[in-house]
Each structure stands twice: as structure tokens, then as C-alpha cells.
């Protein structure tokens, strides 16, 4: 496995080209697969999983400056979620062919597994917003290495930059130390010198090389639920509840389809209501100015993009039953008949409508998760 990881990391451009070629060849599958959707979906799912694995290997490549930045022992939540999303359509197609209406039991199990993985990721990430359903890690970009090497826990390290200049500043009073701190610093330097004299020369060289090669690491305490609730108050609770609603909404939708059927309006309205409530909580905690400043939630650029992406996912409600059969399909048919006499545009419109209807029929519930 390590040899494969090394090969992928060294040939990532070649790997991406192979993946694009393989995805393009899926359109040329033999005609014998046309009678069943299982063959094409199985090939697509396998290619999707292989692509997700390769992307995970590339993304976890240790950097030169921080060779230990990729933690091989941590659970690959993003990879697991990507694999589940690639498998869920195959599960639906296989279950529909062999079990009929009982397919919703298998779809519900798949969605429940995704919910469990996402909730675990939400907890282990310190209750950060999930990006792309957890497929993309929500990691804040750190400051430049020059500044971080001379800071510990957000405070400047004593003598971290230009030791001689710092001593001159102390003597001239621009950055004064107390007599006790100067005495402790002198004792510390004396003890360090004494230890270096007592150590063998070869051991001193090993220590110096180790100090150069291994950068100082700072331990960042991961926020817990109790910390968020105590620091952010009601806004913290609303933020966590909104994220939980976003994570569990697809499972709620499938469970109510299983109970009332795909043609019922109850799952459709309930899913839309859960989406609106979750977005309302998030909008309140990020835009409210009626609370103390410490209780605001400041979204990063990637989190703001995620909020926009979630709002765009609302367009899927136009493609979900029963709204699609009642309204969207009729509008598509009228648009197709209106543009059909127009050369080229009519043909393109017909192909587009056929593609949309085929996708809606193929992915019956369109979780949008």
C-alpha cells in the first residue's frame, strides 16, 4: 500500500488523466448493459471510489516543512463519506431491481451510516461546519512559518527573533524585564551551558540536528460541546443544532418517504422545512447583533462558500417528487415544444430535457447531501 501511495503522489497528474479517461469511457459501455442500470452504476461507483482514494492519498501528502502534518492514524472521514455517496446510487438501483418498494429500507440504512460518520466528524473536528457534507476538511489556513516559529500559543517567544537586539532593548528600557526575570534567564543559560559541557560532542551534534529538523509544535485544544455552549451561549446551541439538522435531513427525508411514499407531499414539505430551520439558525448566529461580541460566529471564506452551496441545493426541490411530476415536468415539456421549431436550439433543448428527466427518474429521491 505504501508503494502505491508513493506512486500516486509522484504521478498525480498522470493519475488525474487516467481517471478522466476512465470516466469518459463509461459512455462507451457495451449495449448489453442497457437493459440493466446495475452494470453502469457499478462501474461508476468503483471509479468514484478509486478516484476518492487517490485524492485522499494526494491530499495527505506530508509537506517538506511539516513532515508530520498528515496524521496517518486519524480516521479518513472525508474518504469514507465520498465512498458512501458513490455507493448509495448503486445500492438504490440494486435494491429497486431485486426488492422493489422495499428498496427504501436499504436506502435508509445507507443514509443512517452517512449520518453516523458525519456526526462523528462534526464532533471530532471541534464542531466546525462541514464542507461539502464532510468530504472537504474544514481546516483554517495557518499564518506564515516565520511568525509561527517564534510564537507559542499566540504569545511571542522570549528571544525568538534577533536575540541580540532583544537584549539591547532590555538594557535601554524599550522592552524592560524585571530583575527577577533577568536573573532566571541568566540561570537558565548557565544551566544550559553546563549541560552542554557535560554531554559528549557527538551527542551535542545529534541534539542540534534534531532541533533543526523537528519544528516546534503547539498543542491546540479542540473545542468541546460544553466549551461552545459556555462561551457562545444560546448562539452556540443554535449553531450546533443547525448543523445537526443539516446532517440528519436526508435521513429524515428518506424515512418519511418510506412511511408515506414518494408521491406524498409530507416528506417534501418536511425536508424543506428542516432545511429552512437549519439555515435560519445559522443566519441568526452569524448576523445577530443583539448579543455580546464574544458570542458571534465569524465564518471563514470557505464556510461562506459552503453556505452559498447549501442554498443552491434548494434547487433540487424542483426535481423531487411530487413537485417534479406536478409542475417541473410540465414546464420542461412546454419549453421543449416552444423551442422545438428553432434550428439547433430546439435540438439542444430536447436533449437537455431528456437528460433532466432521465436523471430525475434514475435518482428517485435526490437527497442532495
UniProtKB/TrEMBL annotation:
Subcellular location per the Swiss-Prot or TrEMBL entry: Peroxisome membrane
GO biological process, one term: peroxisome organization
InterPro entries: Pex16 (IPR013919)
Segments passing through the bilayer: 236-256, 262-282
Coiled-coil boundaries: none
Primary location: membrane
Region (Disordered): 137-156
Keywords: Membrane, Peroxisome, Peroxisome biogenesis, Transmembrane, Transmembrane helix
Pfam families hit by this protein: Pex16
Superkingdom, natural source: Eukaryota
Cellular component annotations (GO), alphabetically ordered: peroxisomal membrane
Homology family: Belongs to the peroxin-16 family.
Name by which UniProt lists this protein: Peroxisomal membrane protein PEX16
Amino acid at each position: 500500500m505504501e508503494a502505491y501511495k508513493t506512486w500516486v503522489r509522484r504521478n498525480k497528474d498522470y493519475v488525474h488523466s487516467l481517471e478522466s479517461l476512465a470516466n469518459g469511457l463509461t459512455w462507451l459501455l457495451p449495449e448489453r448493459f442497457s437493459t440493466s442500470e446495475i452494470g453502469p452504476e457499478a462501474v461508476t461507483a468503483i471509479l468514484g471510489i478509486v478516484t476518492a482514494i487517490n485524492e485522499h492519498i494526494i491530499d495527505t501528502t506530508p509537506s517538506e516543512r511539516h513532515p508530520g502534518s498528515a496524521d496517518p492514524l486519524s480516521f479518513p472521514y472525508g474518504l469514507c463519506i465520498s465512498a458512501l455517496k458513490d455507493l448509495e446510487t448503486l445500492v438504490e438501483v440494486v435494491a429497486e431491481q431485486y426488492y422493489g418498494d422495499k428498496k427504501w429500507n436499504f436506502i435508509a440504512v445507507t443514509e443512517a451510516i452517512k449520518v453516523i460518520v458525519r456526526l462523528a466528524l462534526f464532533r471530532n473536528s471541534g464542531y466546525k461546519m462541514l464542507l461539502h457534507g464532510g468530504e472537504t476538511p474544514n481546516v483554517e489556513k495557518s499564518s506564515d512559518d516565520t511568525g509561527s516559529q517564534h510564537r507559542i500559543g499566540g504569545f511571542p517567544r522570549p528571544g525568538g527573533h534577533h536575540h541580540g537586539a532583544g537584549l539591547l532593548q532590555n538594557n535601554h528600557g524599550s522592552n524592560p524585564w524585571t530583575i527577577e526575570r533577568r536573573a532566571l534567564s541568566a540561570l537558565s543559560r548557565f544551566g544550559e551551558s553546563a549541560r552542554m559541557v557535560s554531554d559528549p560532542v557527538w551527542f551535542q551534534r545529534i541534539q542540534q540536528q534534531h532541533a533543526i529538523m523537528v519544528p516546534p509544535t503547539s498543542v491546540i485544544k479542540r473545542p468541546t460541546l460544553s466549551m461552545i455552549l459556555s462561551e457562545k451561549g444560546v448562539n452556540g446551541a443554535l449553531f450546533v443544532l443547525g448543523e445537526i439538522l443539516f446532517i440528519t435531513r436526508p435521513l429524515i427525508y428518506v424515512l418519511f418517504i418510506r412511511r408515506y411514499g414518494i408521491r406524498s407531499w409530507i416528506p417534501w414539505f418536511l425536508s424543506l422545512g428542516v432545511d429552512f430551520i437549519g439555515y435560519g439558525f445559522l443566519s441568526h448566529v452569524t448576523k445577530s447583533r443583539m448579543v455580546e461580541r464574544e458570542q458571534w460566529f465569524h465564518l471563514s471564506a470557505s464556510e461562506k462558500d459552503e453556505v452559498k452551496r447549501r442554498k443552491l441545493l434548494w434547487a433540487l426541490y424542483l426535481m423531487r417528487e411530487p413537485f417534479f411530476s406536478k409542475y417541473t415536468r410540465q414546464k420542461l415539456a412546454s419549453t421543449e415544444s416552444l423551442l422545438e421549431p428553432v434550428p439547433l436550439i430546439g435540438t439542444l433543448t430536447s436533449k437537455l430535457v431528456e437528460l433532466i428527466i432521465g436523471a430525475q427518474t434514475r435518482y428517485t429521491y435526490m437527497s442532495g447531501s
